[in-house]
Amino acid sequence: MNYKGLETLYWVARLSSFNKAAIQLNTTQSSVSQRIAALEQELSVKLLERRSRTIHLTDQGKVAFKYAEKSIELNEQFLAEISNHSLTESTIRLGVAETIVHTWLVDFIERVYRTYPHITVDIIVNITPVLKESLKNGELDMVFMLDHTCDFDCIQRPLCHFEQSFLISAKHGQRFLQRSALSLREIVRSTIISYPKNTYPYLDIKQKLNQLRLLEPKTITSYSLATLIKMTEEGMGIGVLPHLSVLKELREKRLYILSTDITLSPYRFLCVYTVGRDDRVKKDLADIAVDVANHAMKKLNQQFEAEDFYLI
């Protein structure tokens, strides 16, 4: 039986799209249709049917899908046993949240290229909801994103977490000097600079406001971490950001951390990838990401704890 046909059936069924399967397999939609037709002819059964513009597996198709899944897994295991990392060639489409770009992504890429010199990593930087949807649709192979519920088959590996702090610019922090720990009520008298209101970081603040029956403050929001950092540094408000992503600004005393009695929920990041293509490589890259993240976060936290970055 043709392995290409089984592999094609797997991706068409998994992505519910001939076009998305073609993108995943780096071929044309016409070629995907031909492979499915050839497989159905070889087996003398109908494997797929269209209902309301969606693609569904027939009963025979469901059986074939299980064997296709096993065949892909066995193929990856076989390649893992006989192949040499230094000779492996592949392109991995990696989606990354911006917080990781600002901290340890470069270390990860350098380590990947030492291990797999012939692999190409195409990097897409975006917010978690977009990264998750792109992974689900087969447009990305792997993502580093905030902890998020996934409604599709995938492998999830914990990576790291970033604590959040309230940050103020050096030139606009004078009014907070020699103050005891600020309450949330005092904090929200100022403009808050944060991610948009539909994101996890802002929803965490909103929940705490609701618990204290406080009104939402004036906010300036952006999906770009670099933009949030710049606006905070320019004194446009109090930034709610992961402090390890601004160590340079803290060291140079362009930003300070405000002492508060508020504990914000940390950003928890995962490495998430789908199975069915380059599984061995993706597993190895996930292992590398976990190891790099552990070392990087330990180093960053040591640097943070070695100095006092609080406004006093």
From TrEMBL:
Location of the HTH lysR-type domain: 1-58
* Highest taxon listed in the record's lineage: Bacteria
Could you tell me the keywords of this UniProt record?
DNA-binding, Transcription, Transcription regulation
Cross-referenced PROSITE patterns: HTH_LYSR
Please give the Gene Ontology molecular function terms for this protein.
DNA-binding transcription factor activity; transcription cis-regulatory region binding
Q: Does the keyword Methyltransferase apply?
A: no
What are the coiled-coil residue ranges?
none
**Similarity field:** Belongs to the LysR transcriptional regulatory family.
Name this polypeptide is given: DNA-binding transcriptional regulator, LysR family
